[in-house]
Amino acid sequence: MSDKPHVMIHSSWYPPALARLDEIAITHHLYKADDKAAFLAEHGPKCSAIGTMHSCDVSLIEACPNAELILNFGVGYDGVDVAKASERGIKVVNTPAVLNDCVADMALALLLSSRRRVVHADAYARAGRWAAEGDYPYTLNAHSTKVGIVGLGRIGMEIANRCAAFKMEIAYHKRTPRDDVPFKYYADLVEMARDCDIMIAITPGGDATRNLISRPVMDALGPEGLLVNVARGSVVDHDALIAALNEGTLGAAALDVYPSEPNIPEALFEMRENVVLTPHIASATHYTRMAMGMVLYDNLKAKTEGRELITPVN
Amino acid sequence: MSDKPHVMIHSSWYPPALARLDEIAITHHLYKADDKAAFLAEHGPKCSAIGTMHSCDVSLIEACPNAELILNFGVGYDGVDVAKASERGIKVVNTPAVLNDCVADMALALLLSSRRRVVHADAYARAGRWAAEGDYPYTLNAHSTKVGIVGLGRIGMEIANRCAAFKMEIAYHKRTPRDDVPFKYYADLVEMARDCDIMIAITPGGDATRNLISRPVMDALGPEGLLVNVARGSVVDHDALIAALNEGTLGAAALDVYPSEPNIPEALFEMRENVVLTPHIASATHYTRMAMGMVLYDNLKAKTEGRELITPVN
Known about the structure:
Shape of chain A: elongated
CATH class of the largest domain in chain A: Alpha Beta
Number of domains of chain A: 2
Number of strands of chain A: 12
Oligomer: homodimer
Helix content of chain A: 25-40%
Largest sheet of chain A: 7 strands, parallel
Number of helices of chain A: 12
Radius of gyration of chain A: 22 Å
Structural class of chain A: alpha/beta
CATH architecture of the largest domain in chain A: 3-Layer(aba) Sandwich
Strand content of chain A: 15-25%
Strand order of the largest sheet of chain A: 8-7-6-9-10-11-12
Largest interface: A-B, 57 and 57 residues
């Protein structure tokens, strides 16, 4: 009989990384099951860990009454009921640090694509409009602009370092100012938006930041302003966003995250010149997804061998 | 009678900047004329300067026999017959330095858009494929890659500074190595391509660099390699490029320039996943186009007032 721990896999992650987990665990793939209730009833009780990507609610925790560990593939754990886990003595681990670079890269990819209109210009070129209609319209520049970063944690710092190379002036907003950065701090988000050309959201999700980027913030960014979101969809008031873009009080948006994924508000689909939409791929590179999976692997191994967890969040 | 110099404007540039020229010159807009020969015959002889964007051949020079100055809107002057101009004692000025940042921004916009598949992922999102088909495929990463810059002049250095912020390892190729940079120098382009994930071309055009990026260079970059071109279309062998992309020996290309602009080789149009195409917009921001126009304005003013030219190329 194997002494490998059983793990209930609620949602799949990067397959090569998930495959590595089978070296040290017996995995039960709930997302593949047709009858999920029956699957949970059969395998839930023997599982000492739950693996998930973003989402783990009370019912899943209760279906695995012997779980001691939740492996969350991702840095954001706003979809995991950490309070309930803590109450039951279950530890939660996430995958911080290893995705910082890829998420920061994506923030800049969105920023530059939007300011320089790469997506729309590509369509213009492919439609033969350059030869038929003449030069593509002039765009706004990216360098030498003022950027406000909402949330200056580890990923925010990576974004700031990249923005600095583009000679951007950097400001930031978070609850409490940092004492280790030379960037201007704003306690008030509307005030920061008024002083900035570009705003990048990279703050944690959850109730504390819900609709933090509100209509007044968008209007303060202004008709030439750009909002980039690589945080969570919940951070931006999307009804307000659609209205602000339609009315032109906000110039542009470049989004990787949405309130109700994998759905994207359809009103954004026809905004082709000033909106860039990517399907939550900020950390979705082979390189980073493998690194994220190995952080969970290492945590499970540590737990099994009685060592301290590496990246606990509770 | 005005003592403003007459200027033959061969091709239009950023209208607000061109309008500024009328403060200090009488401009004749050849590109608007139906009968160009008649227009040149009437206005050519009185012009002491020619204004152009990239192109000024012998016939234009000969049609303006009293020209003493050619104003070239752009840093590349491979379309200007500088040899013929020099022979006739005509000075040529261009617009260096002021466009460095925007061109470097565009190089990174193309690099990041391609590596992270922004254009294709945007189309995937807008088509509703995320909800219907599932997550977008994993992509290659941008950070921590090896980039080879072909041409390490002023723009190349701006590109290198930006790449460094993405933790890329930087190498370069030019005719003679620089003694003021810490980057690895390659005399051989195929060798550099073999060692790199990404190659960025930002070398001057003209005969000396024609088809410098050849099939062997592309094949050495390899099936996961990316070629970014913000130099001139002539620098890349486009027949070889199309073949290399079709056969998969080169992974991806992101291009802002083409051999026969405003035409783009149509074989590239259907390559949607791994090719990004922009219509020569690297310096086409309001900010930079105005700055470029003012460099020509300042040169013409200096010439009129008997001062030294600011940015002569011959």
